[in-house]
Amino acid sequence: MQALRFEGSGFEYFKIWIVNLLLILITLGLYYPWAKVRNHRYFYANSTLEGRNFEYHATGKQLFVGYLIAMALFITYVIIQNISPVGSMVVLLVFLLALPWIIWRSLKFNFRMTSFSNVRFSFEEGVGGAYVNYMLLPIAFFLALYVGPIVMAILLPTLGESASSGMTGVFITVGIIISLVLAIYLFAFMKKNNTRYMVGGCRYGQGCFFTDVETKGFLIILLKTIGFSLLSFFLFALLAGVVVSATVGLEGLVGIQQSISDLDAMGDIFAGSAFLVIVGSVYLGFIVLTLIIIAYSYTRQRTYIYANSTLDGNINFASTLKMSSMAWVMISNFFAVILSLGLALAWAKVRMARLILENTQVNTDAGFEQYITQKQQEQSSLGEQIGDAFDVDVGIGF
To answer: Hey, which end of the chain has fewer CB within 10 Å, N or C?
Structure first.
């Protein structure tokens, strides 16, 4: 197994990022598609595997078409919203109905615009799968969250006054349990279907990706994440309670001392400042804990997906990304971007790209070179035909 590498640097990307930002501001946002292309090309060109790199082939002009469409739709929505609230709801509904199609077209476009070692990727799944994965399953998931309350709203009035408070409590508890169980299962089922749709639809030249993930695997990860979250927030709440109690006691002591020395105003200032520090610390602690939980869930899912995915049945993948490394980079990036007023964003993106790539492994044992050469020859013979077919297929570039 060989890990991918990221050969760029924060300073190099900062120069691209700051120029893009200035040009976007100067052009009132019109330069955004070209900025996106420059960003993608930098990260793709610096992502390598055994000396071979990725490439991004889209142009700013192609993305500009989709960008104009998106802006036109947004402006239309804002105008209609000010004229007619009902009309704005209709526009929003139309957008939601079109969203799976937009995602599907975007997937086809972006995969097609990506290549590795001069061999293009593509996405071959149909639009029907997009509507199942990005509309029907999310709707089913959110409905599951409210199945319990809906059942209770229907049944409790029929019981009337004959229902005791104990029976009402039982109905409420059962309804909540039903909702949670259904929602948890459907989330894992949705994650499995999404992964199979995305990975199974991906092609490398004529090579097919395949993943054998199951609902059970995602269900186990989800349950562990929920348990880890509950335990973490419980311990955090205990710690925050101890700190607040200690601070309140300290404030009382300071108040007594200040009243003795007739410096009540100073005591008030101290108390107010301490309160703000406590609130700010609790808020930041909540953010840090949330990032740790996200890192835990992401790394577990990533490891599971990579371990069960192959290319043409003989090239395997693995993820060595650990929660601790992911959490550290996410947390340090967050504080760096905040403290630098956004200027460290370029550095943060490079750090994250390097972490992700260097913990992504591909089986490059004997036969890998021959496999790449074969895919290059296959694409060479079909390149002209595919190029013509995709000449006007610019998709929605956002």
So the answer is: N
Alpha carbon dihedral 124, 126, 129, 133, in 10-degree steps, equals 60
Longest dimension (CA), the chain: 91
* Residue 200: closest CA among 192, 209, 190: 209
Other CB atoms within a 10 A radius of the CB of residue 133 amount to 21
The string of pLDDT tens digits covering residues 85-133 is 788 888 888 888 988 998 898 889 889 999 998 889 999 999 999 999 9
354 alpha carbon, distance to own chain's centre:
17
> Could you write out the three-class secondary structure of 70-117?
HHHHHHHHHHHHHHCHHHHHHHHHHHHHHHHHHHHHHHHHHHHCEEEC
CA distance 86 to 323: 46
> Residue 19 belongs to what H/E stretch?
helix 10-26
Nearest by Cα to 285 from 334, 220, 227, 251:
334
pTM: 0.82
